[in-house]
Amino acid sequence: MKPQNKLVKERKVAGFFENIFRNFGTIVLGTVLFAMIFLGYFLVNDKVSERKITFAASLGMTINYNSSDAKKVSEDDIIKLIESGDLKEDIFTNISTDQSYSNFISDARVEYSDGVFNIMYFDKDETYATAVVKEIYAAVSKKLMENYDIESIPYADESNPVRFKVTVKNGGFVDRLGIKDFTLLGAVIGFVFSLFIICAFYLLDNTVKNAMDVRRYFDIPVLAVIPPIEDKDEEDM
Amino acid sequence: MNKISIKNRERLDSHVVEAFDMLRTNIEFAGNNVKTLVVTSACAKEGKSLIAFQLAGNLADNDKRTLLVMCDYRKGVSGKSSNVMGITETLTGKAGLNDSVYKTDIQNLYMMFSGENISNADQLVSSSAFEKMVAVLKKKFDYVIFDTEPVLDSNITSILCSKCDGTILIMEQEKTRQDVVFAAKEQIELAGGNILGAVLNNPV
Q: Strand B166-172 vs strand B195-201: parallel, antiparallel, or unpaired?
């Protein structure tokens, strides 16, 4: 490495953090600017808030059998029952949809845990999801009572029969973010970007900054540092 | 000797005057044998003409007979007036030295111009006639300051550096690149010039 390049490199390292400190205001400005841009995008763009946010209406039910040796219902039994189409007539009596049954029911889920069957339905419309999950519950209960030795199928949680949770169906990381998180993401991106720009400009800037640079890099004495003066037209001379 | 008038020589702020006083003092400290100076820079538009002029004026104000030679053939003053004699005319015999040196209305300050811009100006400057001319000027004046072209743009400057006692390299703060200064320094040293030091120009 040429001696002058080595000197330049040393100076760059020494002044790196000093440069960041001197340009801290610019970094803050960049952070705020990006945060505002992301916030504005979130507020203006309806599809960001509507496209991926889906409600999941969830209804838990427990099965009480008539006898202890009665055949037990499994999670798969209920899933097959729902998917088979046997419940179509009962569900579509009170639920209106343009979709085919198979498409409609593809947004339904069944989970079993600790003696409770959770039936869920995902939809953008909270009210619609609630209504559907209740219809599915009613239709499933009716069919199970016909085919199994069951005494009753009550709600798992009597005080809150339908639980809601906001979830993202088939969404990525950004889609799960709310307005605050989206703005924060913008701020983080702005901070990193501003920092990158400041550092890039610093590392690429190889102009002479002051008398110390002249002495250190070129081994030339500085005879004088001339402050700013008005330029003189040679015509006047 | 002919006379020229310098218009609008403005009064400088005190801190600027102090800076030029320091420059003059440091040049004087360089020794009594340093009488001919080349003021140059690595690139154009770095304020060397302004600094050369102000330095010459400062030396003149301090009772030093000073000759400022405008040796920039790219923007030769003679191009603006056919009556102005300069280095070219003196070295080609068209004019005598007395006809080419102009007295100004600033006491102790004299000026000389490049003269007609000719294609072989570098040959003229590297000739023995030029060396003789410089020797005569050194006897007549306390200081001879050559305001030249950028050293990386012209070989005339390199030749002048080798023939003068000292070279002052002008740099502009936050504009002049380090690699360019390295190249200029190398060029001057290769030509055998003696770099007295640098002047850092801090423009608005």
A: parallel
